[in-house]
UniProtKB/TrEMBL annotation:
UniProtKB keywords: Coiled coil
Gene name of the encoded protein: smc_3
InterPro entries documented for this protein: DUF3782, PDDEXK_10
Name of the protein in question: Chromosome partition protein Smc
Superkingdom: Bacteria
Coiled-coil ranges per UniProt: 1-84
Pfam hit, one: PDDEXK_10
Keyword Heme among UniProt keywords: no
Keyword ATP-binding: no
Length: 217
């Protein structure tokens, strides 16, 4: 009996030791769980901060894209303004004999075609001298679209005296081709005072630049 009691005592001691170890393990597990909870909380905060940062970066990228688009539009406007300024300077140069009128018209015709208009150069000999009061070639720039005939007159400048000649050219074209001219378009950067009002009364549409021209489909 004494031996049995001794063995029971040792078993109780072992059980107590195991219980103590289990208690320590449970305490360690609790500390680990608490640490894990704190880590998960920190990770959640980091994820939230990363999401906010990503959103800010997205806003910045969008703002940068909008800014780049605005800069591109401004650059395009500046290029167009420079081109228009150069064309006007060239037109005035042609007016004062620094460059030929024909060269300027060729440049404007190229701008029209680049804008999307198919310009036909019509040339016919006026043997009776109806247009210029003596036999000579008559040249016109013509756009034919959807069965409509549009005369485009390209000039570096327009004086009052030039308007009757322009009208005679239109009439001569109608007589020679049998086509009715539906629209008269005048593109020029400079008018003699009063010439623009007369041109409008005669049915001419006035534009300062080829890019301003719009023809309904």
């Amino acid at each position: 009996m004494a031996q049995l009691a001794e063995r029971v005592g040792r078993l109780e001691e072992v059980v107590a030791q195991q219980a103590e170890r289990i208690g320590r393990l449970e305490e360690a597990v609790a500390r680990l769980a608490e640490a894990q909870a704190r880590t998960e909380e920190r990770v959640a905060r980091l994820e939230e901060a990363m999401a906010q940062l990503a959103e800010r970066v997205a806003h910045l990228e969008e703002a940068m894209a909008q800014l780049a688009e605005r800069v591109a539009r401004l650059e395009a406007r500046m290029i167009r303004m420079e081109e228009r300024l150069m064309r006007r300077l060239t037109a005035f140069g042609a007016r004062w004999g620094l460059r030929s009128e024909r060269a300027w018209r060729e440049g404007m015709r190229a701008v029209l075609e680049a804008t999307g208009f198919e310009v036909e150069r019509w040339v016919a000999f006026d043997a009776a001298g109806v247009v210029f009061d003596s036999p000579s070639d008559v040249e016109l720039d013509v756009i034919v679209r959807d069965g409509k005939t549009i005369i485009v007159e390209l000039r570096t400048s327009v004086s009052r005296e030039a308007l009757p000649t322009m009208e005679r050219k239109v009439k001569f074209y109608e007589q020679q081709t049998g086509r009715k001219v539906d629209r008269r378009i005048l593109i020029t950067p400079w008018y003699e005072p009063g010439a623009d009002a007369i041109a409008r009364r005669w049915g001419w549409e006035l534009y300062g630049e080829p890019e301003e021209l719009q023809i309904e489909e």
